[in-house]
Design goal:
The complex is a heterodimer of chains A (about 270) and B (about 375).
Chain A (H helix, E strand, L loop, with lengths): L24 H15 L6 E5 L14 E4 L5 H11 L4 E7 H6 L2 H10 L4 E6 L2 E2 L5 E2 L23 H8 L3 E5 L4 H13 L4 E6 L3 H7 L5 H11 E3 H6 L2 H4 L3 E8 L5 H12 L4
Parallel strand pairs in A: 1-2, 1-3, 3-4, 4-8, 7-8, 9-10
Antiparallel strand pairs in A: 5-6, 7-10
Helix pairs in contact in A: 1-6, 4-5
Chain B lengths: L2 E6 H11 L4 E4 L6 H10 L6 E4 L3 H13 L4 E5 L1 H16 L4 E7 L16 H6 L8 E3 L4 H18 L2 E7 H5 L1 E6 L43 E3 L13 H17 L1 H4 L2 E4 L6 E6 L2 H14 L4 E6 L1 E3 L3 H8 L4 E6 L5 H10 L4 E6 L8 H8 L1
Parallel strand pairs in B: 2-3, 2-4, 4-5, 5-7, 6-7, 11-12, 11-14, 14-15
Antiparallel strand pairs in B: 1-8, 6-13, 10-12
Helix pairs in contact in B: 1-2, 1-6, 3-4, 10-13, 11-12
Classes of the chains: A alpha/beta (about 270), B alpha/beta (about 375).
The structure holds iron/sulfur cluster.
């Protein structure tokens, strides 16, 4: 099978990109564009919404419709786009800062509302762009420029949060697991309702540096060794679980999405329901 | 037959929005604007539109901007605390040149303040609430009829000039009930945003025509567009060049400046022989007019200028009228004299400026004004 490249969704002349060597963001973006190609989406029917941070820079490399907005609010903007024009393919690319730190409220509500869009959360456990500060996904005890002696707070499990908040599809992968990552993105795009692909991603420049994984290869190896299937993860003893993380699909269901429900409301209001 | 209704200001705003063609509402409830939201919830599904109750006011403006870029005529309504939350994303609407209407029904503040009582202390927030160099249009309705008419006007300005327009009502006009003859469809001309005519390959979402306004394609049309809150070039992609930043910021201001005379709306009463000019806006307009009528009975030649457009500021109109008088009186429900300060800038120090301010949650009465005219 010929592998789809996705270059047509890249803005001409935009490369090289701005991300550091060993950063996972470019890999995730590449997987998304290849998925667009596989699904044969037209550029004018895709709307990619981004917020702020290293991940928030992704829109500048795209030749599709794009909307680049404020920190943490990308999902709320995307909700307006999708609610008004349900035919559009809406994808929101966020970091852990955008999605669950400053934007946590929009994240749980977008999942609860089950708005039919795909959120891709590139979780690198810290604020990369502003110099490696702790975020809501920095694990307890880990180091960052604002937790120099260890993080006193606990981290969010982003995937679990989306599942309980009502998402129709939730999966986690890493840039190391390239093929699985693309498969998850494809399943998410094809799913009606709110879908999330969380990507545990290397930020060697900041998170890696503060946590003795400054070398890009070390970080990739960490993702490779510590990312285990859900089944394997469940079999681990409690203290071991702290060192590993589960990858794979966490929920997959078909609850009616917001627009389908709204259509019923509209029919009722006009006496056609 | 005429459709005459006894209607509340907030209901008139919702009806005005529907008349203007609004088909998307996203909001979060807050006193004293909530009736606009409940009206939108009732009407939108019936007219084929979309109503969304969002998680907060930050998300409300965000959804409005998103929907507008997908082609909607979109609006939201709020009051002081909610309007504060909206500022950052309103900046996106300014920078991304996104048509939308935000109604803020001003109440007494600061902070939670007297949540059910009127105020006019957000005039400067409306102008300067967002960070950075930016400008918006703001209108203040002085009656129930104007609540309807200025909402239609707000949509027309938003569509025409590709920007957020703020309808700055206050609790008094919002909750007043008056009988109002609803204009028949077609009686008030409606403006639709300018769409691109070039081929999709040539389209740049921020390349303005000679009139200062760039055509706007909707997401999902044959055009592809890139809209950004970061500093961007005509194509919408990030651009850090200092020259580009100058072009961009100039463009955001100039499209308003170029059409200033069309945007600035005022009304005047009893001004021909006046030697005292009373300036009011919003709910104080009625009291100003009543006070001037009473003053004339007592032999004082006073007239009224009602500011309907509050931003851009009606400086020329005030300057012209101020030349005719010895005293200017500015009437407003705030402590600092937010409009009075602007009036002072316009009239200089030669002409006497008096202020009538009330900020206890009670409306300014004709009596309050007459005391100052004497
Ligand atoms: S700072 Fe971290 S997240 Fe940002 S580009 Fe560099 S490696 Fe990637």
């Amino acid at each position: 099978m010929l592998e789809a490249g996705g270059e047509e969704y890249l803005r001409a002349g935009a490369l090289p990109h701005m991300w550091c060597p060993g950063c996972g963001i470019g890999i995730v973006l590449g997987a998304l564009l290849r998925t667009f190609a596989e699904l044969e989406y037209a550029k004018n029917e895709i709307v990619v919404v981004t917020g702020i941070g290293c991940t928030g820079k992704a829109d500048d490399y795209l030749s599709t419709n794009a909307l680049h907005v404020t920190h943490g609010r990308a999902l709320a903007f995307a909700t307006g786009v999708k609610a008004y024009k349900p035919g559009l393919k809406v994808v929101v690319i966020m970091g852990d800062g955008d999605s669950v730190t400053i934007g946590g409220n929009h994240f749980i509500h977008a999942a609860r509302r089950n708005i039919d869009l795909t959120a891709i959360v590139i979780n690198n456990f810290n604020f990369g762009m502003t110099g490696g500060q702790a975020s809501a996904t920095t694990p307890g005890g880990k180091f960052s420029s604002t937790t120099l002696y260890g993080n006193p707070e606990r981290d969010f499990d982003v995937s679990a949060l989306a599942c309980v908040a009502g998402a129709n599809y939730v999966a986690r992968s890493t840039p190391y697991h390239g093929w699985a990552l693309k498969q998850h993105i494809k399943e998410a795009l094809c799913k009606k309702g709110f879908s999330l692909v969380e990507v545990f991603s290397p930020c060697p420049t900041n998170y890696g540096k503060y946590n003795e994984m400054g070398d890009p290869l070390k970080m990739l190896n960490w993702l490779k060794e510590k990312g285990v299937s859900r089944e394997k993860y469940e079999q681990l003893e409690e203290p071991e679980k702290e060192d590993y993380f589960a990858i794979g699909t966490f929920c997959d269901r078909n609850s009616p999405d917001f627009n389908s429900r709204y259509e019923e409301i509209r029919a009722r209001a006009t006496g056609k329901g | 037959m005429e459709d005459v209704r006894l209607i509340q200001g907030n209901e008139a705003i919702a009806a005005g929005a529907i008349y203007a063609g609004a088909d998307f509402y996203a909001g979060y409830p807050i006193t004293p604007s909530s009736e606009i939201m409940t009206e939108a919830a009732k009407i939108m599904p019936k007219v084929g539109g979309m109503f969304m109750q969002m998680e907060d006011e930050i998300a409300s403006v965000a959804a409005v901007v998103g929907a507008s870029l997908a082609g909607a005529k979109a609006f939201t309504a709020t009051s002081g605390p909610g309007f504060s939350l909206m500022q950052e994303n309103l900046g996106v609407a300014v920078m991304g040149e996104v048509p939308c209407v935000v109604i803020t029904v001003q109440r007494n503040g600061p902070s939670t303040g007297l949540a059910t009582k009127p105020g006019q202390a957000d005039i400067m927030q409306i102008r300067w609430g967002r960070h950075g160099d930016q400008s918006v249009i703001a209108l203040t309705p002085g009656s129930v009829a104007e609540c309807f008419l200025m909402t239609v006007q707000a949509f027309n300005f938003a569509e025409k000039f590709r920007l957020p327009v703020i309808l700055a009502a206050d609790e008094v006009v919002a909750h007043a009930r008056e009988s109002f003859a609803l204009p028949k469809p077609g009686m008030i001309p409606l403006v639709e945003r300018k769409k691109p005519t070039v081929s999709p390959e040539k389209y740049s979402p921020f390349a303005a025509d000679a009139d200062g306004i760039a055509p706007l394609a909707a997401f999902g049309s044959e055009y592809v567009s890139h809209i950004s809150s970061s500093m961007h070039g005509p194509d919408g992609y990030s651009n850090n060049d200092p020259e580009n930043a100058i072009w961009r910021i100039n463009q955001l201001h100039r499209k308003i400046e170029m059409h200033r005379d069309e945007i600035v709306l005022t009304k005047s009463y009893d001004i021909d022989d006046m030697d005292i000019l009373v300036i009011g806006y919003g709910a104080t307009t009625g009291a100003c007019r009543a006070a001037v009528k009473e003053a004339r009975k007592r032999g004082l030649k006073a007239g009224v200028l009602q500011l309907i457009t509050i931003w851009p500021f009606p400086d020329k109109e005030i300057e012209e009228l101020a030349k005719l008088v010895k005293t200017v009186v500015v009437v407003e429900m705030n402590y600092a004299g937010q409009v009075a300060g602007e009036v002072r800038k316009v009239i200089g120090s030669e002409i006497e400026l008096k202020r009538v301010n009330k900020y206890n949650g009670q409306i300014i009465t004709p009596q309050d004004i007459i005391e100052t005219l004497k």
